[in-house]
């Protein structure tokens, strides 16, 4: 019987893998609404038991990380008075399996880092766990769209959620993640959509024009067509005031933790504003048929003189988002060492130009152009020339100084961050 069961599991896994090749993942955020004090206590207990289990296994990995670790129903925790035993009642078996798999994944990552020569320590204890994996839809959690309710394994009550309208009818719901934030509790639902439908939606809004992108500090995004996009979301006055208030509170007191929670909520508000701005910028870039961008070292900018500007704009997220977008539309990454700023986009003359000069003046052809626009044009030109040489364009783009014309691409999509096949 066990052999037949394993064969069925393998067959279903293989069928799922084949199906996933024709799909793309999307994560939707649902917020739990109208929570009473009793509901919050139950959810807090769930996250507390997850912390107990995690820290218990981390304390003695060699002996406690076994095949049957998920069966633990009682753990020993350290308190100011000594060690005490705690029962795990709310955390379901599949949730425990998810936490143990997370520990194994972290250990593998540490091992790989050490093999590469990176200094890596060991897994440390957590004072708080803010996410619990929900492995299987229909078992660890269920959604009833007619009443806008969700059911979480281990809790009898169904919770009302906000945001179910985001889910598309034909999507395939997979695993989820229960997240605890300062503003409340959220359920992150992973859904798989058909690639063809997702591409059709993008193509409806898409223009047949390629674009080059230059990232910067003053203007976060400069496009090869001369368009500039800038934003700056700095820390609020309220946050600074709360940080001053926290410094005067006695550490460990009730007022200390209340103020700390207010600071966390304010940080969440600032991060949400930055994410929203970044989402709007990426949705604008989706309109272009081909995107070319230089793979700049944003981390180097952050560690240098422009740390505050990089942090307050979240510019580093643009490259990461475009790498994910490359599974749907062609995105080309130009090498970071290409001298895109020094070369004239009209005649190809190269000269050194200081950072203070914001206009590129070519002594050879006499053309004057904005420094960032010149760089964006060069990025697009390099991408087109390389793709043309590799036979990935059916109709090539002109690489002169004039306006670029539409380009026909071979229909294929490579892995994120790589060239389209």
Task: Tell me what you see in this structure.
The protein is an alpha+beta fold and 421 residues long. The chain folds into 2 domains: 22-194, no CATH class; 206-409, no CATH class. 39% of the residues lie in helices and 23% in strands. It contains 11 helices and 18 strands. The strands form 5 sheets. A 7-stranded antiparallel sheet has the order 4-8-9-1-7-6-5. The chain has a 5-stranded mixed sheet with strand order 12-11-10-13-14. Strands 2-3 form a two-stranded antiparallel sheet. It is globular, with a radius of gyration of 26 Å. The model is unreliable at 394-421 (pLDDT under 50).
Layout of strands and helices, then pairs:
Elements: H1 2-20, E1 23-33, H2 37-59, H3 61-64, E2 74-79, E3 82-87, H4 93-115, E4 131-134, E5 141-144, E6 149-152, E7 158-162, E8 172-181, E9 184-194, H5 195-205, E10 207-215, E11 221-223, E12 228-229, H6 237-248, H7 254-285, E13 288-294, H8 298-303, H9 307-313, H10 316-325, E14 331-334, E15 359-361, E16 368-370, H11 371-389, E17 393-395, E18 408-409
Parallel strand pairs: 10-13, 13-14
Antiparallel strand pairs: 1-7, 1-9, 2-3, 4-8, 5-6, 6-7, 8-9, 10-11, 11-12, 15-16, 17-18
Helix pairs in contact: 2-4, 6-7
